[in-house]
Amino acid sequence: MSNAIVIVGGGVSGITSAYLLSKSKGNSVTVVAKHMPGDYDIEYASPFAGANVLPMNLDADSRWERRTWPEFEWLCRNVPEAGFHFKNCRVFRNHKDLVPGTSSLPMDPLFDLDPWYQHMMPDYRELETSELPPGQDSGCSFTSVCMNTPMYLSWLVGQCLRNGVVFKRAVLSELTEARRLSHTGRPADIIVNATGLGALRLGGVRDTAMAPARGQIVLVRNDGPSMLTTSGVDDGSDEVLYMMQRAAGGGTVIGGTYDIGNWESQPCPNIAARIMSRAVRLDPALAGGKGVAGLDVVRHAVGLRPYRKGGVRIERETLRDGADGTGVHVVHNYGHAGWGYQGSFGCAERVVELVNEIRAANGEDLSKEPTLLNFEAEKVAKL
């Protein structure tokens, strides 16, 4: 009999976990969520992301991104319907922003002068002084990817459905309620908690380390010649500067803010004006040299990143089901802040490992389990 696994959360973390878990014939996977791909709601962060790959974790915690990058690179080269494309990325540093304690934002290893990811990202090089815009002290360039996030989420759901994953809408007050929502008709053996910011208030979790990191962006029709970001801006300690062009006609995202603790769902016109002004100053080509007036706005939007003080939580625990007192295995995967996509496969891989620990403890033989991250194996099979 297969393991009944219920994943709570329909964002990129939950669905990627479902995808990897569904590769095992020993698992029957159900995804339960209030919001699903196709929805736009302030409670649901995944559709508002850019998203791209700009490594953000410390070297010691870089497994998540190191393991995800090869999967995204392979998808970009071989699966056009997943909604990826390659883009040159330029990361600019103002050295005063790199001094500890000078910013209210979490320290971002993306802007390190000797970054660990220089050996991972293709075509990495330090920029010449002549390549730097005014006000920037140094920078680097590399090849990255940017995706059309609604398109990618839909593709990911399709892969799950092909593997037998069942999706259900539900609103939970307690995490253990998910135990009775498996499509198998019997109580779930394992619950995966991928609720993101919902972990703050969900019964059985109520993680007070969670907080929103409000991100306001402007989506424009203009084609961005490259991806750009800077280590800081002069307009406010919770404002940042980045831009990226989504694949497949998804428009260019320019941002933004990183405002920890701010729940406001409505875009602020003054912030939007600063976002657009900064973008065209840094890269006039974005608007054809016409300044803010040259930007063709699709919409203004706000998303709430699932920030967690202390970093992502990926671990096992046993909770008591209040309905019948039964112990329930739980695997947590939440608190990714702004790097949920670019760490999605690496984190889901760890979820599978933790689930397999539970299965092995129950006496299962896992010697014939599939490779966790195996697009390369699938590619060979297709050839």
UniProtKB/TrEMBL annotation:
Cited Gene3D superfamilies: D-Amino Acid Oxidase, subunit A, domain 2, NAD(P)-binding Rossmann-like Domain
SUPFAM superfamilies according to UniProt: FAD-linked reductases, C-terminal domain (SSF54373), Nucleotide-binding domain (SSF51971)
One annotated GO biological process: D-amino acid catabolic process
Cellular component terms per the entry's GO annotation: cytoplasm
Binding site for D-dopa: 242, 305, 338
Required cofactor(s): FAD
Residues binding FAD, per UniProt: 195
Domain of life, per lineage: Eukaryota
Domain (FAD dependent oxidoreductase) ranges: 5-354
One Gene Ontology term of the molecular function aspect: FAD binding
Keywords noted in UniProt: FAD, Flavoprotein, Oxidoreductase
InterPro entries for the chain: D-amino_acid_oxidase_CS, DAO, FAD-dep_OxRdtase
Family named by the database record: Belongs to the DAMOX/DASOX family.
Protein name as catalogued: D-amino-acid oxidase
